[in-house]
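User: These chains co-purify. Model them together.
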Amino acid sequence: MSRERDLFAAFIEFADTFVADYDVVEFLHRLAERCVELINASEVGIMLADREGVLHYVASSSELMRVIELVELQHDEGPCLDAYRTGLAVHSESTGDAIARWPRVARHARDLGFQAMAALPMRLRSEVIGALNVFSTTPEPLSSRDRQLAQALADIATIGILQERALSDERIVTTQLEGALQSRILIEQAKGIVAEHNHVSIDDAFKLLRGYARNHNRLLGNTAYDVIEGTLAAEALTAPARSGGT
Amino acid sequence: MTVPRLELEQFALVVEARREQDPASSLCLACVDVLGVSGAGLVLMSGGRSVDLVGVSDRVSETVEQMEYTFGEGPCVSACRTKVPVFDADLADDAVVRWPEFRRGALGAGVRAAFGFPLLVNRICIGALNLYQDRAGALTEDQVADALVVAQFATRSVIGWQADAPPGTVAWQLAQTPGHGVEVHQATGRISVQAGVSLDDALVLLRAYSFSHDRPIGEIAADVAAGRLRLD
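Assistant: Joint model of the two components:
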């Protein structure tokens, strides 16, 4: 069956995306396009939530669908928002049903030629990161098989996005840890240099460094670095410094 | 049927049950319980050097970790450099030539076998988990498999703690072992001025002094930092 073959091809394509150079927006645009091809849908749009839980439009199969997504966000109603908030799949049985549930968005969609609406949550266990909107120009609601298929595609997209996020979070934290460790070493070393140069205790050396950093509106780590590099003479830290010179 | 392997969640429960000291040392104590080794230490690495001893299960492990820091060699340094676990099943084996100073010192402290597992985040080594045995002998296959899980748990813990730390600072959970590291850096700064050398060379002088006087680097560093000892 050609549909099955297309489906396999889509899954392989998405699996490959996770190892190659990964770009979330590019990936979701492709997901939207494949969804249109594989299920009985006219248009597909995808929204993702930011860290505060606010949904944003990310990708769609067409410009028209982008407009619909924005209308949903603007009116704060629609299948995409319901799927995101409840974490459950939603679909309308008819145009009348859609208008009853999402009056402003469904009327707008109807005027643009859409009749059936559905949305699938992008969810892994309890974490919902967004939703996938499926609109059709035909009056029949999306079949349960198509909904399952769309959900499967949404699921692999979700796993890919969550993995990528976890990796980049770890990278950021690792870099921060490295920076904080190095900065702490520099500060301790600078304390030793200042203490030795100025014949004061480590504690007093720290007060001198901190005082200089404050008076010159500089970070302690940068001041320590300057002392170590010799661009700031340790002796210069004895007198309380003022901007504007002596 | 294969023997069920240690799960991360399972180990988390052991660490929780062991919560009697600081989090990193609790992790090391749980490590000793679960893996059946005599000691464990958790070290942070930066730029190929061990920079912070964050947790130990006992005093012997603390002494041995200090030696590794003093000599700049040992299981955690090697594990971090190679990014694979390193095993030394018998520190008294004369046929082995690596880590000569560390081996001598660790044997003197009562450790007979040492193992290092790198903490890796995207192929970057952020630290190491060291395991110690008071008798010679390789780790069993099961111990190695479980130690890998524990190392993964330790990596996640370090990242999790640091993720909650204020920007530019090191998480409080990672700065728990006092007297290790801080004084060494302060002393390094002082010695660089006293001897008129670079910071790297100053650290070498400090290490050499500790070695030749057979005293822990932390003690020497504390004396230098306080101005009680000069290394001109």
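The mean pLDDT of chain B is 88.
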